[in-house]
Amino acid sequence: MRMNAGGQQERRPRADVQRNRAALLETAQRHFLQHGVGTSLEAVAKEAGVGPATLYRHFPTREALLAAVLQTRSEEFVARRAGIEQLDNAAEALERWLRAMEEYLSAFSGLPDPLMAAARAQDPDNPLTIPCDILISATDQYVRAAQRAGHVRASVQGYDLFLAACSVAWIKGTGTEEKSLDRLRMLIASGYREQDPGA
Amino acid sequence: MRMNAGGQQERRPRADVQRNRAALLETAQRHFLQHGVGTSLEAVAKEAGVGPATLYRHFPTREALLAAVLQTRSEEFVARRAGIEQLDNAAEALERWLRAMEEYLSAFSGLPDPLMAAARAQDPDNPLTIPCDILISATDQYVRAAQRAGHVRASVQGYDLFLAACSVAWIKGTGTEEKSLDRLRMLIASGYREQDPGA
DNA sequence: ACCGTGTACGGAGGCAGCATCCGTTTTGGG
DNA sequence: CCCAAAACGGATGCTGCCTCCGTACACGGT
User: A15: burial class by Cβ within 10 Å (0-12, 13-18, 19+)?
Assistant: First the structure.
């Protein structure tokens, strides 16, 4: 008899459960991309071909659905991170990481809001808390490395740049044009970079 | 006979209209302060002692109500601006202006979103467009003055710092603690300030 | 003081989205 | 093939948005 870690009976997951879950994730991702994180969950359920109750059974809250969709998206993201970690230039690694994170955060319009809420509350029941903490601690790593190499001011913390990336992602989500965003990114970069003393 | 600018008959505004409008504005401000810009308009109407239709007749959209409430709030704001303009230190004037604007923008949680939408769309029908444009052009003034005095990098535009202020206000609205906000403000200030060449 | 006009009011109602309950269907092990 | 457990999904109640339309009230004139 199948047993799980807790010593209870284990059954192979039912086929319809997996099917529905996959359909929901796929549809939800499309709707999040198109209409932002505030999209109608009823519409998602209908388009996925399930009733509303099925959606809520799989994902009790909007945040849970969001976290699950982000999970599927994070594969590409971690691959990108692996590429970044091979860089020996800590300053460029930080820069690329921030950009990657910003793109991740602006995947769906409105995504930064629930993420910030999760980052603040530290509620273990909020499914977004974990991905959020990962982002913050990773940023801190890159910042420390760049600081050791003398590229970043000592007063800067990883969390600060996480906030900055969230900000840029938020602004991006409001539809601001790319040119303005670029100038804002430059402004932030000027803010955290150690001024070159050899000039 | 009373005439208005268009040459049409003019009547003194009815007493109940003014009363209702004032009650709505007062109640709306309280609700915006307490629950953010997304607060229930039905609840506002009920607490102001009027029907929903009366609210919508006075303020056809949520943005219209928001703009009217902001209007009443802006008196204190312009007074503050008058105080700033008397400063002869352009760098400090800019700094104080940015801080004043940030506080104005974070008066109600969620306020930056509709404001950014108005800033982007430039829709003349959106009642938030005008206050928004005022903020942007004022920021530009302060930036130019500070640049003439050599305190701010030439690459920085007023709109950039408007965006930055919106960002900080947005983050503030998500409930981030003041300590983190201060570090973010420092980061931004380091970003726009001209590095002192005499060091 | 009263009256008529036109302006403003507000309850009722249609609509959309959220979240849940419970009778029914599906699934897969025995 | 059967049956118990598991999952499904339509129906439902709720809240908030916004509008329509019959009613009440305020104001200017007499």
Answer: exposed
Q: pLDDT tens across B112-129, in order?
A: 999 999 999 888 899 999
Bases in strand C with any atom closer than 7 Å to a protein CB: 7-13, 16-22, 26-30
Q: Name which of A157, A175, A191 is nearest B190 (Cβ-Cβ).
A: A191
Q: Which domains does chain A have, with CATH numbers?
A: 1-59 (1.10.10.60), 63-192 (1.10.357.10)
A12 CB and strand D closer than 7 A: no
Q: What stretches of B49-110 show up as alpha helix (H) in DSSP?
A: 52-58, 62-85, 90-105
Angle separating helix axes B112-121 and B62-85, nearest 10 degrees: 90
Decide if B112 contacts B169 (C-beta within 8 A): yes
Contact A120 B166 (CB under 8 A): no
Distance between CA A152 and CA A150 in Å, rounded?
A: 6
Burial B24-39 (b: 16+ CB within 10 A, else e): bbebbbebbeeeebeb
Q: Please enumerate in sequence order all residues whose Cβ is within 8 A of that of B5, keeping only pairs 6 or more positions apart, or say none.
A: none
AA identity, residue B5 = A
Distance of alpha carbon A105 from its chain centroid, rounded? Answer: 5
Which residues in chain B, range 42-71, keep a C-beta under 7 Å from any nucleic strand D atom? Answer: 42-43, 51-53, 56, 60-62
pLDDT in tens, A102-114: 999 999 999 999 9
Q: How many interface pairs between A and B have CB atoms less than 8 angstroms apart?
A: 86
Torsion over CA: A150, A99, B140, B182 (sign): negative
Q: What 3-state class would DSSP assign to A152?
A: strand
Is B190 in contact with A113 (Cβ distance < 8 A)? no
Whether B171 contacts chain A with CB within 8 A: yes
Given a contact cutoff of 8 angstroms between Cβ atoms, the answer to whether B81 and B138 are in contact is yes
Q: How confident is the model at residue B7 (pLDDT cuts 50, 70, 90)?
A: very low
Neighbours of B79 (CB within 10 A): 10
